[in-house]
Amino acid sequence: MINYGYNVCFLDILGFSNKISKEGGLIEIKEKYIKLTEIVIAINEKYKDILSTGFGENSYATLDDNVGVFYKTNIIYGSDSIVIWADRTWEPAKKIESIEKVHFAAKWIGFPKPCDPFIDICNEIICASIELDLPLRGALSSGNAYFDFDKYIFIGKPIVEATQLEKIQDIVGATFCKSFEEQIIPKRFFLTFDNYLKVEDENCKKLNKEIIKAKSNTNMNLLDWPRHWRNTRTKNLIETIEKIDFGTRVDIKANTLRFIEKSTELQDMYLSKEETNIKDVYSEAYANCGLSIRLINA
After folding, report:
1. In whole angstroms, what is the distance from residue 134 CA to residue 82 CA?
2. What local confidence, expressed as pLDDT, does residue 56 receive?
3. By C-alpha distance, which of 127, 157, 131, 128 is closest to 142?
4. How many angstroms separate the CA atoms of 74 and 95, rounded?
5. Orientation of helix 25-52 relative to helix 116-131, angle to 10°
6. 156 and 143 Cβ atoms separated by less than 8 Å
7. Which residues are CB-contacts of 279 (< 8 A; sequence separation ≥ 6)?
8. In the predicted structure, residue 41 carries a pLDDT above the cut 70
9. Do 223 and 182 form a contact (C-beta atoms < 8 A)?
């Protein structure tokens, strides 16, 4: 049966323990953390609201000759970590042996779900965390896993990969594991970056092994969350980062500001119809497909 596994994003709050340890830190962190969890809850509830209008998980043709995609992205939080995941396989495809056996008029169900909605939510969570002075660091991966939202169970290789890569980053944001890149990702969603991963320490062999292993699992492509910030917010991003308390980790602030600068330099790239429309980016899946036309935001 067709199975593409899950897209997973693991995020951790930077400097969480230090913030808690400060005088009055618990009260301050609690108020900000509650606001962050409210954003998470709102995203989960929005899915239910859309379902109540009659829309199901599906691809829809839009009136501007594009495709709108709707599917559930789950978010769960605990302590200083957030896990975001989405099933990459359309439900009808799970009953089909291979993509060759999918009817040509509905062949899109045999392809993986476009990652655009998943990445949009990851970007939004990162940007919201920055506004709350609870900046997140993490990684995105893909593969087979087991999730039980109600029981708070999430296990699998993509989670292990993401947590290992998250630990060696000295920057705000999220890096792609190589497994995540085994799918089509529109260019506007990522930037190749350098000099932001931890370096080996000759005095700590155990740490070196962890760093080397994690580094081997990435091409150093970072989620371009600053682009999402510019598209959704009016606040000055650099000024917002400057106000965040990074403690002694001035390297994290410097790397983040450097990344924002690079993102800004490339802000006018990857915006053509061929690079943004789902129908064009995922042309193999959506060419000549029989999609119902519904008026939704693409």
Report:
1. 12
2. 83
3. 157
4. 23
5. 150
6. yes
7. 65, 66, 67, 286
8. yes
9. no
Q: Per DSSP, what are the bridge partners of residue 141?
A: 8
Q: Would you kindly state where each structural domain of the chain is located, as residue ranges?
A: 6-286
Contacts for 216 with CB less than 8 Å, ≥ 6 apart: none
Tokens 């036309």 map to which residue? 293
For 84-143, write each residue's pLDDT tens digit: 999 999 998 888 877 776 766 678 888 999 999 999 999 999 999 999 999 999 999 999
Q: Where are the alpha helices (DSSP H) in the chain?
A: 16-21, 25-52, 116-131, 157-167, 205-215, 225-232, 237-243, 250-265, 273-276, 278-281, 283-286
At 186, the amino acid letter reads: P
Q: What is the mean pLDDT of the chain?
A: 87
The single residue listed with the structure tokens 């990702």 is 185
